[in-house]
Amino acid sequence: MLDLVCALLLYAFILSVVVAYLALFVVGKRASNARLEGHGGVMLGRGAMEATYVLFGPLVRVLLTLRVMPNTITAFSLVPALLSGVALARGHFGLGALLATASAFCDMLDGILARHLRLTSDLGELFDATVDRYVEFFLLAGLVFYFRDTPVIQILTLGAILGSFMVSYATAKAEALGVAPPRGAMRRAERAVYLIFGCAFVPLAALLWPSVTRGSPLYLSREIPIELAILVVATVTNVSAVRRLFRIADSLRARTA
Predict the structure, then answer these.
(1) What CATH number does the domain containing 121 carry?
(2) Are 171 and 22 in contact (CB under 8 A)?
(3) What is this structure's pTM?
(4) How many domains are there within the chain?
(5) How far apart are CA 102 and CA 13, in angstroms?
(6) How far is C-alpha 168 from the chain's CA centre?
(7) Structure confidence by residue, pLDDT tens digits, 41-69
């Protein structure tokens, strides 16, 4: 019951984002947040991200009034991320999805606060990027543990971890080598959306078929939504990472020539 309630709360928030997006579309307001350049994907368009930023407006004003520092928000994001991993490892997918969403909100809020307070710095970027890697790992590690009796899904989850880190590595390496980071699918925000959506729909699937995957993923089970999400993330992230590395190599050859 707790998982279903958490999932319903998440559905309600998604509905509010859709309503905000439609409102922005109706009034003709165009996306203007520079931080969203190059972000988004199939499931996470820039319009949806802009609508989410608009919804955060009142909360941002409260945090500014309380003088909460961006690094405090960044560090706090580790707490719901860790709890999310624990919840997923125990099979509480609705709760895990809600906690993972809370952690993702913290990641958005710290950047907004930093720009409002004009506290952006290389040190802050380093801290934020480091925390992001831990946050993503906690979620995927919880799934690895949960699917410990299902080798196929566990291997796919490990593949998702590898692909996720390689996409981030390719971008960081391009910046270190002084070439333009190549764009591609499955940036961190989009990966999070796929995995969170997959987890959030497990409680709903459990109402239709309550069976649980054990040993074989070949029969209908309540975990199908997250299994499909893991499959998509594992496949697309690794393909995207390889394509990014090839583009970086082409840029380096062109620069050398």
Answers:
(1) 1.20.120.1760
(2) no
(3) 0.83
(4) 1
(5) 11
(6) 13
(7) 544 555 556 666 667 777 778 887 888 88
